[in-house]
From TrEMBL:
GO terms for cellular component: membrane. GO terms for molecular function: water channel activity. This is Gamma tonoplast intrinsic protein. Coiled coil: none annotated. The chain crosses the membrane at residues 15-38, 59-83, 103-123, 130-152, 176-193. Belongs to the MIP/aquaporin (TC 1.A.8) family. TIP (TC 1.A.8.10) subfamily. It is found in: Membrane. Signal peptide: none annotated. SUPFAM superfamilies: Aquaporin-like (SSF81338). Keywords: Membrane, Transmembrane, Transmembrane helix, Transport. It comes from the Eukaryota.
Length: 211
């Protein structure tokens, strides 16, 4: 929205994509850091789903997180629309040459990378001092994924981020992609990390001097 305002609704440029990636990376870094001691930084339904699949949160807690995340997204979009004098909160959409299946694969891969990073730096009980950098690592992987996939389908990686704008603008074209792909990617990452690494008897915490 800010980019459209600055460019008078001009087309997205490489510089605009880089700016969006950097802004998302640092914003998520702050959001996860602020919420880490309250809700373990759960601001993404896909991450919450991955944590549930790995048995790290209960179903009830996961549902409550989802409600808070989705409601927060809708309220934020409504406030943004009001604060900007009615500017449109554009829903996520696919580029003209990108099919729904292409976008589905993109979202699966990008969300896998995100949830795998969350498991490695925040969930793994043997992470040691690596947990200190969890918020910045999570922010950076999101920023990197936006650079890689933003030009194709917006690089959501977060159903709540897609849901709020879709509700406020009432635009649901290919919206399912931003749920199905993300939940599949999150589930695969959770199962892979939980069963191969956390569940491995030889998985030991490294000494802090090795970091």
């Amino acid at each position: 929205m800010a980019f459209n305002k600055l460019t008078d609704n001009g087309s997205t440029t490489p510089a605009g994509l880089v700016a969006a990636a950097v802004a998302h990376a640092f914003a998520l870094f702050v959001a996860v850091s602020v919420g880490a001691n309250i809700s373990c930084g759960h601001v993404n339904p896909a991450v919450t789903f991955g944590a549930f699949i790995g048995g790290n949160i209960t179903l009830l807690r996961g549902i409550l997180y989802w409600i808070a995340q989705l409601l927060g997204s809708v309220v934020a979009c409504l406030l943004l629309k009001f604060a900007t004098g009615g500017l449109e909160t554009s829903a996520f959409s696919l580029s003209s040459d990108v099919s729904a299946m292409n976008a589905l694969v993109f979202e699966i891969v990008m969300t896998f990378a995100l949830v795998y990073t969350v498991y490695a730096t925040a969930v793994d009980p043997k992470k040691g001092n690596l947990g200190i950098i969890a918020p910045i690592a999570i922010g950076f992987i999101v920023g990197a994924n936006i650079l890689a996939g933003g030009a194709f389908d917006g690089a959501s990686m977060n159903p709540a981020v897609s849901f709020g704008p879709a509700v406020v603008s009432w635009t649901w074209n290919n919206h399912w992609v931003y749920w199905v792909g993300l939940l599949i990617g999150a589930a695969i990452a959770a199962l892979v990390y939980d069963n191969i690494f956390i569940g491995c008897n030889t998985h030991e915490q490294l000494p802090t001097t090795d970091y």
